[in-house]
Amino acid sequence: MADNSSGVVPGTVVPFKLFDGKDKDNEACRSLWVAVIQKAIKDVAYSSQKRGQRALTASEREKLHRIYELEAPENFFNSPWFEEICLFLDLSPSGIRVAVFDRYELSDAQRHPLI
Q1: What's the CA gap between 94 and 100, in Å, rounded?
Q2: What is the pLDDT of residues 76-105, one digit of tens each?
Q3: Among 114, 106, 113, residue whose Cα is nearest residue 43
Q4: Is there a contact between 92 and 83 (Cβ–Cβ < 8 Å)?
Q5: In sequence order, what DSSP letters do the residues of 48-104 get, joined into one string?
Q6: What is the reported pTM?
Q7: Scanning 27, 53, 65, 99, which has its CA 20 to 30 A from the CA of 45?
């Protein structure tokens, strides 16, 4: 059953571009998407920091498990979602991608995963 106000079935994940031109709080959307990118960068940074560590505590293992539970965070930077978010924010996806991958010294396999 569709929600009468938007035509979207409740609980459905919908890309934000479907709502272009409709009432939306542009600043709230921008803040949300910036936070998504920041979280992905933090996850890559944390996993990069722990990658070279010989022994991990239980809490570090748990945090890494949560980070990688669905997918490696570096994969986000090669995803269509990342491209859409950057388009919305008027950012260069390739510029961010290169900066993140270089900063955290990701291997070629991590930069270009087989998806």
Answers
A1: 10
A2: 999 999 999 999 999 999 999 989 988 887
A3: 106
A4: no
A5: HHHHT-S---HHHHHHHHHHHSSS-HHHHTTSHHHHHHHHHHT--HHHHHHHHHHHT
A6: 0.68
A7: 27
